[in-house]
């Protein structure tokens, strides 16, 4: 039995080596694709192409007796690596006559990410950080674009301290709050103004599939090329007003981060045994706990800034607190009927999205389980 098992394992090893060779060949082809896209200014991520390719591979896999989910999981992981690889080939410069770009706060993580993407796209980039502030006037004197990438609580202050910019200079901020920074930029600069919010962390290997929200400040015709450049990097662009942005971020960021903070605080005050909690957890709880731990692995100033950036955020959190209390009262009364009615009402409100989220979450749960040690 041992000899038979070893022989089969040897064949599996050989098959794995063949798979590695095919993956290496695929990555070489991806590199060639990246070069072509770079030359012609094509985005590295094309949703229609990806969806069509995955659908075809699923059909072919099932015809070969393989689960469609298996080949899709493999290809999605391979494509994620491919998008990162394509970055290294650079991108077409969509505005070759643009004067230097100055990133204020360019030594921070997000500033460095944008510096890297802009350099890969052929632009001249200058960094203006605290150490260079005495040279700020000369650094921005001929700038074609100035990007503000500083912590939220410093954003408006830094904007107000900017030296005079060239009239046609594009002033951009990357803050996760939009209304106040946009107003500050338009107050100090009469030229083009654009508000951006990258909806991802600076540790992202690629902008492919990442969402970048943009809010018009002034003269959108002057910065359309920059939005197109970001699209070439593979990002999904979403346009909203500053008010809409901040209202939505109250739910997406402020409320969610506060609830996560409160849950983490509760765990620590209860002094639970994290090791045992993980050993006993289901994949979905492990994933939820991972997202809580992820928050506490980051800069507390960032989350304090996001949560406390607006009185509207606090008002929303207080309404959440009230509803939490009302739901708790149902439990204290042992009122299962009321709980089920509330559950059903929310279920109806979610509608078809509930099923969509159920399907999307399966791959996340499988991944969480795969990574379990």
* Structural class by SSE content: alpha/beta
Helix content: 55-70%
Main beta sheet strand tally, sense and closure: 7 strands, mixed
Average pLDDT works out at 92
Beta-strand percent range? 5-15%
Shape: globular
> What spatial order of strands do you see in the largest sheet?
2-1-3-4-5-6-7
Radius of gyration: 25 Å
Order of helices and strands: HHHEHEHEHEHEEHEHHHHHHH
- Count the E strands: 7
Number of helices: 15
Low-pLDDT parts are none
Terminal CA distance? 28 Å
Tell me what you see in this structure.
Residues 99-361 form the Prephenate/arogenate dehydrogenase domain. It is found in: Cytoplasm. Residues 1-90 form the Chorismate mutase domain. With 373 residues, this protein is α/β, with parallel strands linked by helices. The chain is built from 15 helices and seven strands. It has helices at residues 2-40, 47-63, 68-87, 109-120, 136-140, 152-160, 179-188, 224-232, 242-270, 274-280, 283-295, 300-307, 311-333, 336-350, 352-370; strands at 101-104, 125-128, 145-148, 170-173, 193-198, 211-218, 236-239. The protein has a seven-stranded mixed sheet, with helices on both faces. The longest helix is centred in the first third of the chain and has 39 residues, at 2-40. The chain is globular, with a radius of gyration of 25 Å. The model has no long low-confidence stretch (mean pLDDT 92).
Which secondary structure elements does this structure contain, and how are they paired or packed?
Blueprint (H helix, E strand, L loop, with lengths): L1 H39 L6 H17 L4 H20 L13 E4 L4 H12 L4 E4 L7 H5 L4 E4 L3 H9 L9 E4 L5 H10 L4 E6 L12 E8 L5 H9 L3 E4 L2 H29 L3 H7 L2 H13 L4 H8 L3 H23 L2 H15 L1 H19 L3
Parallel strand pairs: 1-2, 1-3, 3-4, 4-5, 6-7
Antiparallel strand pairs: 5-6
